[in-house]
Amino acid sequence: MMIHVNAKPHVFGFDPVSTALVIIDMQRDFLEPGGFGAALGNDVSPLQAIVPNVENLLALARAKNMLVVHTRESHLPDLSDCPHTKRIHGKPGLCIGDPGPMGRILVRDEPGNQIIPQLAPMAGEWVIDKPGKGMFYATELADKLASRDITHLVFAGVTTEVCVQTSMREANDRGYACLLIENATESYFPSFKQATLDMVVAQGGIVGCTAPLVALQASIYEEENNKVSEHD
Ligand code: TIU
Q1: Which of 22, 61, 72, 207 is buried deepest, with most CB atoms within 10 A?
Q2: 155 CA distance to ligand 1 centroid (A)?
Q3: pLDDT single digits (tens) 75-93
């Protein structure tokens, strides 16, 4: 069963059986005050605004029985997977591994490192802990996706120009067809978000496609109606 999304710069066709929804780093560390995003000097409130859209997207993927992958940017408690340059990045006392109001900043299993409750992973969904910005770097994801014959990826999450774009570019290099849901991703910098969306679709979709959530919803609705009329 193929679904055809009216996307930019061209139609994005996919079969839910061979497609995963990838939700990048929707963690308290990036969305709530007192986390890593705020420690870097950012206003985290714009990121909260996409939560309802990501919830709807997640519900849609679950309804279509798609594989769901949640990623978390996180480091081991001993920080052995955190390069020195990353460890010292930021304001003194507010760097990765330092104590904050939600536990140690960007450290695995600390309260601040968890995915926000509205998007909590369900049994059977994958949670990929990644020490880098890209989801393939130093993770087991490539092998796991190959074992499920996944060829298409639908992206959401934060932040658009950092972990989402890096992961999408890594995926593009590995041959995955990628669709980024425009209003299910956000940046601390509105102009960087727009620039990223523009960069992804430029040159005939050099990195992939983008579409608003409503376009994905409409394409699924259309596919389901076609199925009903086939049975008439
Ligand atoms: N700082 C920023 O915009 N993002 C990150 O550090 N990580 C992710 O994007 N997840």
Answers
A1: 22
A2: 15
A3: 999 999 999 999 999 999 9
